[in-house]
Every structure is written in C-alpha cells, then in structure tokens.
Amino acid sequence: MSQSHQEVAELLGAVPKAWRALLDQRLRPYGFSQATWQVLLKLGRAGEPLLQNELAARVGIEPASLVRLLDVLQADGWIVRQQDEQDRRAKRICLTAKAQQLSGELLQVADALKAELLDGLDPQELQTCIKVLAQIRAAAEQAEEPPA
Amino acid sequence: MSQSHQEVAELLGAVPKAWRALLDQRLRPYGFSQATWQVLLKLGRAGEPLLQNELAARVGIEPASLVRLLDVLQADGWIVRQQDEQDRRAKRICLTAKAQQLSGELLQVADALKAELLDGLDPQELQTCIKVLAQIRAAAEQAEEPPA
DNA sequence: TCAATATAATTAGCTGGCTAATTATTTGAT
DNA sequence: ATCAAATAATTAGCCAGCTAATTATATTGA
Asked: Where in this chain does the record put each HTH marR-type domain (chains A, B) (predicted)?
C-alpha cells in the first residue's frame, strides 16, 4: 500500500514504454522495427557470429520468437544462418557486410537518444537508481522459485 | 558510452519484463491475462464507470487496443458497456457485481508480489530511484517534440 | 552399446500491442 | 443555422512476444 511502491510500479511501466516508442519512431526511417534493430545491434556488439540461443538471450526474447525476426532479416540480406561445424543442430547467425556498415548508424541513433534521456541526471543519484533496480531484479529472480 | 547509461538502459528493459512475467504467472490461475486483469483493476480502483478513453489512458494503451479486451471481458460477464447519456458517441465501462468481488482478490495478488519485490529496499534509495525515473520520463516527453 | 534424455532450431497458434481508416455524433466558426 | 473540424468507439491488418509441440542431433547412463 506504500505510496512509493505504487509510484515505482507505475514508473517502471511507463518509462521503458516511452523509451521504446521514441526509439521505434527514430529508427522507422531506416526501415527497421525495434525488434529487428535489436538483433542487428546485439550481433554488431558481439563482433562474432552467435548461436540463436545466445542471441535470443542477449536480446531478451525466447529463441522461438527470434526465428521470425531472423527470417525477415535474412530475406532482406542483413544476416545469414551458417551451419555450426561442431554441432549440426546449431546455426551461427552472421551479419552481412552491409549490415555491419549499418549497425554503426543504428547504434549512434540509439546512443543519442540514451544521452538525451539520461544526460541531465545526477551521477550519484543514477548510481543509486541502478542499485535499486538491480535489487528489484534479484528479488524477481528469487520470486520465480516457490519457497521449495 | 557511459557505463551507467548502458546499465540503466538494460535494467529498464529487464526489470519490468520480469515483473510482468511473474504477475502473469500468478494471475493465470484466475483465468486472466495481465492485459485483461489491468482493465479490471483500474476500473476497480476508479470506483465508478469510466469512458473507454479514460480507461485506456489509465491502463497505458491506445483506445483501439482496449476494444478487444473489453469484448472478451464483456463476453465473460465481467464488464458492461453503458451508453453515456450526455454524449451518444461515448460508452461508460462498468464492472459487474462478480467482477467487483474478484477485483479485490486480484489486487491482493498484485500487491503481494509488489511487496515481495520492493520490501527489502532502503526507503531513501527507493525515493531517489523514483526521482530519477520521473526525470527520465520527463526527458522522454521533451524528446517527443522536435526542437520546434 | 544403445536407449533415454537433453538440446538447437523450427512451426503453429494464441495474446496483445500498434497505426490507419471508418462511423456516428458533437463542437465550433462563420 | 449550417458546414467543417474534432472526438468516441470501432474495425482491419500488421508486428512481435509467448507456450507447446516437432524434428534432428548430441549426450549420458545402465
């Protein structure tokens, strides 16, 4: 019933939603939805081909959800699926050359927005905010497991 | 490029997602998805019938997105759409009696989870976190309007 | 060894967001 | 008083997440 509890709950609903909407809006001119852009960016940051497993984990979605995004990106020539040599079940997802070029631009747009949203903040207060959010995340991981 | 900026961006992605997933899981036994539960809860909190407009704003979705949810809730006897008397375009959304009963239970589940996730936090640090998140939200509202 | 189990990717089908366009009604400006 | 613009709800169609089930391959244990 605490007022603070209610406030933080509402902010955690609203802030990421607004952030995502802004990013979507700015990336639309490049022809990417936020979902597909995330994939290109994570691959670019990784600097090497990733298994779908790993990529899905970094993007924060289920492997099954990634399949359709990869289909689209592959059809448009942004990624290729490469047989893994050790494990014939697995495929490594590679950025094409043109995708590597582009990912730098996309990253700049995302970082510019990040700066607009965060630059005015007091660094000490931001640190505290990060600490609190990390504690909430840890509590959520605890809560997943019923008390055994 | 700041490390803090990157961290808070990732946490703002992950924390609400984890929270929502937990809530979904706990409300599933009641037969509601999180989307439909939000509607019942906001109506319950309002304490009076709301226009779809107002309800959508409180839930944080577009009025058009609310239509399908209301169709489902109406079909299952949780809400009714009532012609507004002043404005014949508008409808007021009312909870049925059985929905009013239930909304208390749903609220308890949600509040219990909120407590699990937030109770261990330092109140002062939580306040700082709220302040920072509110500043980010304000910056996002600024960012929507191009520099005129 | 080889049968059971686990794992990587996929497919199918559901849920729930969004925007754009439509319909009915109201408001506002001349 | 009337016509143009705004507004409330809706519909249609897209995108993108999820879980459950499927297929192919790897791993493990009796």
From this structure: 5-138
Q: Is residue A147 part of a domain?
A: no
Q: Is the CB of B63 under 7 A from strand D?
A: yes
Question: Would the pLDDT of B9 be above 50?
Answer: yes
Q: Residue B145 has what pLDDT?
A: 59
Boundaries of domain holding B47: 3-144
Number of domains chain A contains: 1
Is residue A44, in this structure, part of any structural domain at all?
yes
pLDDT tens profile B56-85: 999 999 999 999 999 999 999 999 999 999
CATH of residue B66: 1.10.10.10
Mean pLDDT across B16-31: 89
CA to C1' distance (Å), from A5 to D11: 38
Q: What percent of chain B has pLDDT over 90?
A: 76
In a domain, A148, yes or no: no
pLDDT band at B148 (very low <50, low <70, confident <90, very high): very low
Q: Do A137 and B12 touch (CB under 8 A)?
A: no
Q: Is the CB of B75 under 7 A from strand C?
A: no
